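Hi R.,

Here's the chain you asked about this morning:
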Amino acid sequence: MRFFGHPFSSYCWKVLIALEENAIPFDWAMVEQPENSAELSRLWPMGKFPVIEDGNAVIGESSAIIEYLDAFHPGRVQLIPSDRRAAVQARMMDRVFDNYVMNMMNVSVANALRPEGQADAYGVAQSRDALHAAYRWLDSALPDAEWAIGDQFTIADCAAAPALFYADWVEQIPKPLTRLRGYRARLLARPSVVRVVDAARPYRGYFPLGAPERD
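And the predicted structure, written out as C-alpha cells:
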C-alpha cells in the first residue's frame, strides 16, 4: 500500500491514526517530492490528499479510505461498528468533525494564506461562530464515555483527533466546555494519536497562524 500525503495535513492524520490503530503497513509517498505529486495527480486528478493505492484500488477521501481499511485490512480495532445503529452514529460524528470543526478551522488557516489585501474577515468571523456552535453542541452531545460514540474507538475518533487538535490552535475550546476539553485530552493521549502528532512536529512551522507552545 502507498500513502500519498503529508505528516502535517489534518486529513492525512485522520487516515494515519486508522493505519496506526491496526498497525497496517504502508509506504509513504510524500507529496512534497515532485515525482510523488505527479503520480498523485495521475491517480487522483483532483490533486487532494490523502490517497491510498493498494494493488489495483485507488481510494481518495479520508472517510472512504477508513471504510476501505476497515473492510479489507481489518485488525484488532474495528473502526466501523458492526451494530448498524452504532455505525450510523459513528459515520454521523465523522461528518460533524470534518464539516463543522475541521472545515471551519480551515477557513482561518486559508485566510492567513491569502495574498495581501484579499483577506476575508467576514468569512472568518462566520466560520468562528460556526466553530463555537459546533463546540457547544459537541460538549452536550458527547456521551458519558471515553470516545465519541461510547466505549469503542471508531472512525469518529479518527476524525475528531486532528479536527480538535488544530481547531483548538485557531480558536481555543472555552474552559466551561469541560466534556469536550476532556475528550480532546483523551484523544491526544491515545498511542496512535501520539505517534501521528510526534511525526508532524518537525513541520509546525508550516502552520500560518503560528503553532502555540503546547500540545
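The chain has eight helices and four strands.

Let me know if you need anything else.
M.
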